[in-house]
Amino acid sequence: SRLSLRVREAAKLGFKRCIIPSAGRGAKVHAELTDIGLPADFKVLTASSLAVALEIALH
């Protein structure tokens, strides 16, 4: 999916974490991403809303 491609690209660019939606396709993509060989220090976090995503990003 495009989301998994974007997450992989973020890892390639040196980002250490990304936040994806927990609803809808985000949950399935999160499960897929744990098996594709992202760097060990790369974290994929899920958020249920934009407010939660901002909280995660700012802490």
Give structural notes.
The protein has 59 residues and is of the alpha+beta class. Helices cover 49% and strands 17% of the residues. It is built from three helices and two strands; from the N terminus they run αβαβα. A two-stranded parallel ribbon has the order 1-2.
Give helix and strand order, one letter per element, not per position: HEHEH
| pLDDT averaged residue by residue | 85
Order of strands across the main sheet: 1-2
- The percentage of residues in β strands lies in 15-25%
Radius of gyration, taken over Cα atoms and rounded to an integer in Å = 11 Å
Helix content: 40-55%
Overall, the morphology is: globular
Distance between the termini: 28 Å
List the main descriptive attributes of the protein structure presented here.
59 residues; two-stranded parallel sheet; 3 helices; alpha+beta
Please sum up the structure shown.
This protein has 59 residues and is an alpha+beta fold.
Write the SSE topology.
Layout: H1 2-12, E1 17-21, H2 25-33, E2 43-47, H3 50-58
